[in-house]
Design a protein that fits this description.
TIM Barrel; 372 residues
Length: 372
């Protein structure tokens, strides 16, 4: 740590990083200073050290597909290029047979261990659609984890059923839902949400539904979509809302910060955001995520989906420990035209080996399957 120690002496965030090395997580004002600092490399040295101290020179990934079961949506988020309004010629909803066929093919071809199930807010789908799908997956593909539905999708189902979100979560868990992605968080500040997703659930509702899921034994990921209309204070507020909930429930398995991709979205069309934030900001967000969540949320994902393989390799040295998933069949980010969003397990394995790390394939709950 001599190189790091020498650089620490000259840094304006020296005290924060020294506290992190001694096991003291940064508070909100410390986090603000980290966001305002240009010392990204030094943050990365410290957060990378903390990550290797916990996991060694190893990175995990999950062999999975993403199942975008419907693109019908009435929420009209300005950052989304995927959704179609009800009645659109391009609207679709997968049948149970189509879901089974996709999973069967993916299992045979790629030996997947997780299916990530996400779609639009489709008011025509009742809870039985989801229950039938989850039951079928768990019965026919017991080795594949069911990781599905954002908090806002849960809210939509509750509205359709005129039921509580907790009752919906309980029924879906009984049907086979095992964990939830963190989608729908974006930035957990309503003044931001009012601009980018005014019809979506509030920040408090996102937290409440996650709290309910965790209380029912449904663990989840947490996410942050940055790089649009938020400011640093909004980012700080987002981080510490997650900290507060995690201290209460310990239900978050992982955190995934990812940058907004403006291509083909209303936000680009309206001139709100022209270009994405780029790689340096990703590395800063990865490093700060590790510092803020060290000892609290165990896993930080590399966010390759919006930043590419090369940036993901760097992210693994700046505080991430998990590459994420293979995501065969992804349709949401790919609608922005940003890049190919398909990645096979071998490409992930090669990418991790290229930086001198060993690779651990994992399951839905971050349990190891194989090490290479």
């Amino acid at each position: 740590m001599s190189q790091t120690t020498e650089q620490l002496q000259k840094s304006d965030i020296k005290d924060i990083l020294e506290h992190s090395l001694n096991g003291q997580r940064p508070g909100p004002e410390d986090c603000m200073r980290l966001l305002e600092s240009d010392d990204v490399h030094l943050m990365g040295l410290v957060s990378g050290y903390l990550t290797r101290k916990q996991f060694g020179k190893k990175a995990s990934f999950v062999n999975n597909i993403i199942l975008n079961y419907t693109n019908v949506c009435i929420t009209d988020c300005k950052f989304c290029a995927f959704y179609r309004s009800p009645g659109s010629e391009e609207a679709y909803t997968l049948s149970l047979d189509q879901i089974e066929s996709r999973i069967k093919t993916s299992s045979e071809m790629f030996n997947i261990r997780q299916v990530l199930i996400q779609g639009g807010h489709n008011p025509n789908l009742k809870i039985e659609y989801y229950e039938d799908a989850f039951k079928m997956i768990r019965q026919k593909f017991p080795e594949i984890g069911v990781h599905g539905l954002s908090t806002s999708e849960i809210d939509m189902i509750a509205r359709v059923e005129k039921s509580s979100t907790k009752e919906i979560l309980s029924r879906l868990k009984d049907a086979g839902l095992q964990s939830m992605p963190g989608a729908g968080a974006e930035i957990l500040v309503d003044s931001v949400k009012d601009v980018i997703s005014p019809k979506k659930i509030s920040s408090d509702d996102w937290i409440r539904i996650m709290d309910e899921a965790h209380s029912l034994g449904l663990p989840s990921s947490a996410t942050m979509m940055y790089g649009h209309v938020e400011n640093n204070r909004d980012i700080v507020d987002h981080f510490y809302k997650l900290v507060k909930l995690q201290e209460k429930t310990n239900g978050f398995m992982a955190f995934i910060p990812w940058n907004f991709e403006p291509n083909n979205t209303l936000m680009q069309e309206e001139g709100i955001v022209d270009i994405g934030t780029g790689g340096i900001q990703l590395l800063k967000m990865i490093a700060i995520s590790r510092l803020v969540f060290d000892g609290l949320i165990p896993h930080i994902q590399s966010s390759w989906l919006t930043n590419g393989i090369g940036m993901a390799q760097l992210a693994l040295q700046y505080g991430a420990d998990d590459f994420g998933g293979t995501l065969i069949g992804e349709e949401v980010v790919s609608c922005t035209g940003a890049r190919s969003t398909e990645l096979t397990d071998q490409k992930i394995i090669d990418a991790i080996h290229q930086i001198g790390y060993s690779v651990e394939e994992r399951d839905n709950f971050y349990n190891p399957i194989t090490l290479s």
